[in-house]
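Colleagues,

For the teaching module next term, I've prepared a clean inverse folding example: a structure given as tokens, and then the sequence designed for it. I'd like students to try predicting residues themselves before seeing the answer, so please don't circulate the second half yet.
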């Protein structure tokens, strides 16, 4: 997992706009603050479908960039966004978990038409990147 910095800005009466200083042309919008994580993750997934992997610049380096300084002077904020690169290879693992929790996981997964594995993967992804 890597963290990419996003610049979050909002003009009065508009959605939140997200841009990524390390990824030219990568942008997103979110209607409210709670939607920022999901919007950022979707934008990153789409950007990395067609673009090469990028090593993110440090937060200190990003803060020194003229366009970032200008955006922050206008009220923008910086936020690190966790990104899990797509890797569809499946790996079998062995975990130890409390029996009552496992029953609750299985019951919830069945109710959602999911397997235990897909439910655990989805819950882990949600915990790691939000949304």
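(Answer key — instructors only)
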């Amino acid at each position: 997992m890597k963290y990419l910095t996003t610049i979050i800005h909002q003009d009065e009466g508009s959605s939140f706009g997200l841009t990524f200083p390390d990824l030219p042309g990568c942008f997103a919008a979110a209607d409210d603050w709670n939607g920022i994580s999901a919007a950022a993750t979707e934008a990153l997934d789409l950007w990395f479908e067609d673009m090469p992997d990028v090593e993110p610049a440090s937060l200190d380096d990003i803060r020194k960039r003229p366009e970032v300084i200008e955006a922050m002077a206008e009220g923008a904020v910086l936020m690190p966004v966790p990104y899990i690169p797509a890797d569809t290879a499946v790996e079998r693992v062995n975990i130890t978990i409390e029996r009552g929790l496992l029953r609750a996981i299985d019951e919830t997964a069945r109710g959602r038409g999911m397997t235990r594995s897909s439910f655990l993967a989805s819950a882990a992804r949600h915990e790691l990147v939000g949304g």
